[in-house]
Amino acid sequence: MHTIPLVGRGDFSEWRDAARALAAAGISPREADWRICGVEHELFDAVAPPQLPKPDAAAPPLTVPPAFLPLAEAVVCHTEPGRFHMLYRLLWRLQSDRRLLELTADKDVAWARLLAKNVHRDSHKMTAFVRFKEIAGETAGRRRFFAWFEPSHFVVARTAPFFRRRFADMDWIIATPNGTASWDGETLIFDTRPGENPGHGDPTDELWRTYYASIFNPARLKLKAMQAEMPKKYWRNLPEADLIPEMIANAEANVRAMAERAASDPPLFHYRLQEAAQPLSQIVPAGAGTIEAVREEARHCTRCPLHCTATQTVFGEGPQDASVMMVGEQPGDQEDLAGRPFVGPAGKVFDAVLKEAGIPRPSLYLTNAVKHFKYEPRGKRRIHQKPDRGEIDHCRWWLAKEVELVKPRLIVAMGATALYALSGEQRPLNQVRGKPIAMQGDMVLYPTIHPSYLLRLPNEAERQRQHALFVEDMLMVGHLKETMG
Amino acid sequence: MKKSLQQRLAILSDAAKYDASCASSGTVKRDSVASGGLGSTEGAGICHAYAPDGRCISLLKILLTNFCIFDCAYCINRSSSNVERARFTPEEVVWLTLEFYRRNYIEGLFLSSGIIRSPDHTMGEMVRVARELRTVHGFRGYIHLKSIPDAAPELIEEAGLYADRLSLNIELPTDAGIGRFAPEKRPDGIRRAMGDLRRKIEAADDPTLQTKRRKRFVPGGQSTQMIVGADGADDATILKTSARLYGSYGLKRVYYSAFSPIPDASRALPLIKPPLVREHRLYQADWLYRFYGFGVDEITSGTGGMLDLDMDPKLAWALANRDAFPMNVNRAERERLLRVPGLGTKTVDAILSSRRFRRLRLEDLARLGVSLRKVRAFIEAEGWTPRRLADRADLKTLFARKPEQLSLL
């Protein structure tokens, strides 16, 4: 049996050095007796350094999977007396079973992970519950702070760098029974000896206590939730914690008092505000009969329920005297956010095709059969949904206004929805595509596909064929535009 | 007589407490090592204290002022309320933030404000606080600003440069509810503001032609809050609205805040105990939607629009869909395992990792931290087959909590 005495105050290297030597000498976990002697021995050097066996020269070098190191470093900081033994057993088993750590249901692995979790939690709570008190007098222009904290495990050394990263511009000392860390702007010093609590105060604590008491909502007492996250063992060193019993005791009375106090008459300034707001709430009608006036009106459209779920009305855009009007189905995700038609992926395809056909986009009036985006939320995305006949019928009112005011010679219906909105007929698109239809008032309706159709085709050859056909349609539109315009 | 800083702190934090958001996580990592200044954010948030209401205190959550020209019935600061009014100067907020931060009370600042004079003026004052903290004092802690709909785009853009998160509260799930209780708020304006912000965030995230570095703009994303129990909206409506907001505007979080009595409350609203259990169920459902692959319809179908208060929504779904069980922990794929009541995302991942090496038994699951009492009826494991679920009429009673009714105050 080999006895290995350790200080056991969170120093990983003392365990690692001993474990290395033991493993190299081929000493099994059963033959190793790990002892914790505490800090006194380190101080008085009463114990001779552990008598470690000579390494077996033929033994292969000791290696561990990368996940073992952070795990062991955390476990060493725990106060559980059996931790060193358990870690060595894990190390021993890892030599023959390299993937042991992935087996989270294994007894040793589960235990190690549990201890590591306790240490991480304690370290996290330290970052949360340390409270600095300012000490009078600066040194070299730096303010000085002191904190007394009582962690459950040996976490000061592993947590101190957090405070250095955060409080770089002030000098601070964090003293605990498990060691003391300090920072002076240049070096982070750590001392494993137990620190002392001089009992500093800080006047700013009063403001913090005021905040703590005021941010509390007495109508929703949830004591278990509080104590689960802020266990009582930490309360001693929290300046706000001694307020808690009174806050709890008075909560019910405070809520009752709130309820009993009947709503009082509003203050005078409320009436003044209400009066002042009156003229603003009346919508000023813009010049009637212009596309701008209709657009403004459409912004507030509530003809169908789609307005509640869409971001905004996406009205048509383009010159009011355009000779060609292009009508799509409905705005998509991007159009809904931007408030403009044909700016999303289908819009990009559309722009490219227009360019190939030599039609400048600004010369066209672009709009949609339905002005609000209809979709189904799916996780972080919105899945486009086809508008139904009712929605198209409701929205036709706006489309008719646009046609009436722009008076285009040629209307291009892109897709079945637009065709239905403009002609009232539901026909398979491939039967009518590319065949101009005469409309009332000397207008011509030209049906074609919707550009988003090209995005949905999975087959590349077919996509190229349809793309070419769409370009042909647009060339025809360009031709008609020239001859009619 | 002018109120002292302490008195105003009491008023303006009391006025801010009905905003549930307190997150300080999910932003970029940064620290003060190189600058020698003050502050850091390290990914995970830190809750520096907990109040007896069970809520964490992570940020200094205050209003710049609680004067407000709006008259939203549910709000403590509405213009028709007689609560005491106060205001901070931007310098005072900066001082409080820095001094609180130095003592490690907080992770940073969550600044909101009543609307005074105009949206631009209000937003401008808040931006000033954030700008001073970042540029004058080199503060690297967390900043959450409320964004005001209808504020000028330049102001929102500047706010986004300094703030880790911007939020805009929709407060009520339906347009009709907003119209009734918050007559000055415009739901379409709120949606447009959220949409604009999403576009700005996405634009900043796109590497530019000149540099691969992305512009830092609201790295913690945007969030919102809905009040639960003030208007008549049911859970299905609330969850549908959440799903819509997540999908449409890329929100990081939708917070649910049980409507709780406020001083000098409006007569238009119910004076009940805040529906805390309902709020909790909504959060659970929200998680199921975002991390467990459940659709809102799946969660709410068969509930009559209101989630069961006696059991969590996942268990309720499982009991209503017994034919989907038992699931075999050694074979079922991830999406299926996520549907088992009592298995969380981390546990499921641990199961997937462990089962590559050996077939799992109930004891193995217990070591992964699974509550066997909860899961055993729904799973098959090596050496374990439950009695057929459909046969058990008493299944529901195995899980039911003792009923507790909401009472009038």
UniProtKB/TrEMBL annotation, chain A:
Signal peptide (from-to): none
Domain spans labelled Uracil-DNA glycosylase-like: 315-475
Family annotation (InterPro entries): DNA_repair_put, DUF4130, UDG_Type-4/5, Ura-DNA_glyco_family4, Uracil-DNA_glycosylase-like, Uracil-DNA_glycosylase-like_sf
SUPFAM superfamilies in the cross-refs: Uracil-DNA glycosylase-like
Record keywords, A-Z: 4Fe-4S, DNA damage, DNA repair, Hydrolase, Iron, Iron-sulfur, Metal-binding
Family, as annotated: Belongs to the uracil-DNA glycosylase (UDG) superfamily. Type 4 (UDGa) family.
The protein, known as: Type-4 uracil-DNA glycosylase
From TrEMBL, chain B:
Signal peptide: none
SUPFAM superfamilies membership: Radical SAM enzymes, RuvA domain 2-like
Co-factor(s): [4Fe-4S] cluster
Positions of the Elp3/MiaA/NifB-like radical SAM core domain: 58-285
Keyword Metal-binding among UniProt keywords: yes
Keyword Membrane: no
Pfam families: Radical_SAM
Domain of life (superkingdom): Bacteria
Keywords: Iron, Iron-sulfur, Metal-binding, S-adenosyl-L-methionine
Protein name, UniProt field: DNA modification/repair radical SAM protein
Species, as recorded: Shinella lacus
